[in-house]
Amino acid sequence: MTSASNNDRHEPELADLTESAALDGSACVPMQALRPADPAGLGLARARVLGAMFGDHSAVARIGRFRVLERLGAGAMGVVHAAYDPDLDRGVALKLVAVPTTGRAAALAEAKALARLSHPNVVPIYDVGIDGDHVYLVMELVRGKTLRRWIDGRRRRAILEVYQQAGAALAAAHAAGLVHRDFKPDNAIVGADGRVRVVDFGLACEAEDPALDARLRPAAGTPRFMAPEIAAGAAVTAAADQYSFCVALSDALATVTGEPASRRITAVLERGRASDPAARFTSMTQLLRALARDPARTRRRIAALAAVAAAIGTTAFLAGQRTPHAADDPAADRLASCDTGAARLASAWSPTARASALTRIASLGAYGRSLAPQLERGLAAHENRWVTGHRGACRDRMSGVDSDTLSDRRTACLRQASDAYARLGELVAAAQPASLVDLARAAQSLPDPAVCSDGEALASDVAPPRRDLAASVAQLRTRLTRARVDLRAGRYTEARDAAKAEVSRARALGYPPVLAEALLLEGHAQSQLHATEHDRADAIPILVEATSVAIVAHLDPVAIEAWARRAWAQATSTDPDHALGGVEVIEALAERTPSARFAHALLYNNVGNVELAGDQREPARRDFQRALDKARGVTGDGALELIGIRANLGLVSDDHELGDQLLAEAEARRVELLGREHPDTLELSSMRGTITIDDLGRALAVLTPVCRGYELHAALQSTAALCWHDVEWLHRELGDDAAAIAALERARRVAPGDAALAMARLALVRGTPAAAAPQLAALLSATPETPAMPWWKRRDRAALQVELGEAQRRSGELRAARTTLRAAVAQLAEITDRHPSALDQRWLGRARVELALTLAALGATEAELAPIANAAIAWLGRVGSPSRELAALRRGKAVR
Predict the structure, then answer these.
(1) Of 113, 130, 638, 804, which is most buried with the most CB atoms under 10 A?
(2) The pLDDT value given to residue 195
């Protein structure tokens, strides 16, 4: 997306090929390629002319709430104007993209997706909206020069440096699943602060899998920089941006006279722009590392260190001396001092130690082999973001861009991220097979260093500690950071005990903000122990105090999060009816704190969960949607937790297709962060197979690999057995008794201690229902119905009644079967009316079939039989169940 500069107003190079793209349903469609004309341009021009000629302030051009000041540039990507935001009293860049009505929703959705990309080297998008026939994007107004203009007269080292920043932006986009598709020197601006911002993500799209679709795709981009595979209409992957980047950097280095690029740099660029995508680097991050790797510079550093070591005791001689390089280019030397981020992060967890630890992880069984490369990718991405953030913070401090307060906050933010990284390194080094699942969660919950460059996120009116307390507060926060990593790593008792100790220290210090942080952590850890309901109940007073202290200290994000976690703990323990007391107050607090996106999203998610537990489906759906809207853009610590919002919304959707789409999106995100074999990912796949997918064959295809995945985890064998029970039910419903028996045998084998249900069902499938009936009756008696029983447990109990009724019918106990099945149908009909999931509908359908067959065998009258038989026939026809049951019901007879 383009953000133009007042200092560099040339029209961007136009790409004829961009106008050939359209909304054709392919995975990668540029929203800007919908309409190249600018019908709003005449209206804006007319408004400006009227305002100038007649002082007609009502004619000042406006788009949404924004007052348009001047046109900055135009191209195939849209038209960019400088504008004024009266609400926030700031200048912005406003980009308009003409979109036909049919493509508006898709364009807006893509714009919102791009708005979630947060990185210091990407122009941030503040807002998106629709005005007439246009989608508009509100962005930072960057003042500077494009890379094409900036490189004039620059030295090779400086050019490589700014392109490293541009490459970091592309790497961040790739980590978010996006491909720029049109990187070129005109689409990156070097701001007055020296920071590069990549712009014009207008052709960006989600990366595609080359194996999924062989259809030719519409080519889009600038021919000079376009990867060959895009020109050929092949799948668009992150490798395409590598090609464009290397072509642009090669061109830039060619402008440097008297200083040719080294053979090493030339070789890197040749590989990056190889015609075959497979021959390029495995990622943009690897390419950037190869560019930064300078053997000669490393040798010089080693020699310098040796010289320093030899000169100990003679520092007075060296004092005040300047190196020749500093004399030649002092500004470059100061900037070079900001390139120490990698070394600083290595002091927290060295690359050698990390590689050794990951090798060890891979040796810890089948899941360890799957997890190790997943961890490596996530850690490499974190390292890249931290180093980039450190460089930006250092340069902004040197150049005076940041105030002292903001600079201190950025430094503290980066320190927190490196402290968390160090603690994770310790946990990875000591990991055992049983801790790998939680370790994966911890690795993806590290604080996002990109947030440390977000001035809005760092803004706060919280008073800093007194100077005499500053060091103690900093040390306390370091210990809290380590305990927070322990919490994410499933070490709940250790995290709780550590936080409790910090609460005592914070009380002694008398600095409320850090006390609130410590109380929140203690309460959260306490609520996660899950040993008994008392653990969650014990968390309530801690979280109540955290909320109160945080409100007094103006620490709104902590107050909101503490209240939300208290509401969940209370709803699942002592007093669910009053768990949402005071929600209006905390909502108002959240609305005044728009930067607290994680806390805001967590608030509405937890409110929705409390409502759903109270059987208030519609309010829950509303609040899950609000939570999803607030969760957009959250990265780092908390992003993993918020994936559950999309799943929750999918689970309460009455439209199963939409619900499955939401669950599939959540599943894909967890695959990206945790891997396909992580239990959290498997849980979402299981939900899809049981709750949102109507088609039984498709559900079976989704569930079968899930069961195998659960078997990889020693602690989840009972879960694997339950999964195989679901698979068995689907096979039996589809008439494949042999496959059903195999699934039950596997369930019994993986969890021999939970074999009672498997034995009962095996008796049913093998044709000995008389043996199944007493076993099912015993299981039913073990779960007596109570008034306080939640609806999902009532559903599970009714499912046991259905199978007991089937066993009774097939054993000839028809009157007992009728009583059992009528109760089951009534219960399931009530539940399905309020919670129409695929699972509830499956059990209700099977219950009606069994009741209809029982009534037919008892010789029921047509008036009694017809309603239930017609519903049963409709169900069997819908799911494709065995024809023998359909035929029997149509004849009004029973089947054995």
Answers:
(1) 804
(2) 84
